[in-house]
Amino acid sequence: MRDFRIAPSLLSADFACLGQEVRDVIAAGADIIHFDVMDNHYVPNLTVGPLVCEAIRPHTQAPIDVHLMVKPVDSLVPMFAKAGADIITFHPEASEHIDRTLGLIKESGCKAGLVFNPGTSLSYLDHVMDKIDMVLIMSVNPGFGGQSFIPHALEKVRAARQRIDEYTAKHGGEIWLEVDGGIKVDNIAAVAAAGADTFVAGSAIYGQPDYQAVIAAMRAELAKVA
């Protein structure tokens, strides 16, 4: 039986009161805070940096999951680690040396993960599974919140689950499988059935007046998945 984790994305929160938004969503039953970093270079949008991560850190004991949509990556890793990140993920296309970047994240005291866009091959995992704590499958193209789920992402989730299960059966350890993009109450069970255990939801949660009701509805759907 997998443990399921819900990770609201601050990208869809009210930026005028982020501390309160963090407290409210955790109180409503969320497990993780998903923190999207965009640089207007790797993706065509500009969001938040280490100072904002540092500002929200005192507002929760929950893990902060920093998703770096930036290029280059390495210079920001120690900055976010110092700012309070617990997990740092990045896109393999954005790093000149993927193994080195994963090692840097681990050396900085954080869990490390790779992020796969809809068109990115999982083959980047072939030689670095020993440094991976999380695989993040994008079910939209990165850059903007509020996009619709891309259905064929389920195939990639299933393929990633197979890779993770084969590796952990042989070597032990735990690797989370996170999915980000268009996750909502009516598709979260299908994503879980494909193999995901961690679910990023932005507008599906922060776009609703009652965070607790949405998260409870998501958990009710997840409870249907064996």
UniProtKB/TrEMBL annotation:
The lineage of its organism: Bacteria, Pseudomonadati, Pseudomonadota, Betaproteobacteria, Neisseriales. GO terms for molecular function: D-ribulose-phosphate 3-epimerase activity; metal ion binding. Its cofactor is a divalent metal cation; Mn(2+); Fe(2+); Zn(2+). This is Ribulose-phosphate 3-epimerase. The keyword Transmembrane helix does not apply. GO terms for cellular component: cytoplasm. Binds 1 divalent metal cation per subunit. HAMAP family: RPE. Its EC number is 5.1.3.1.
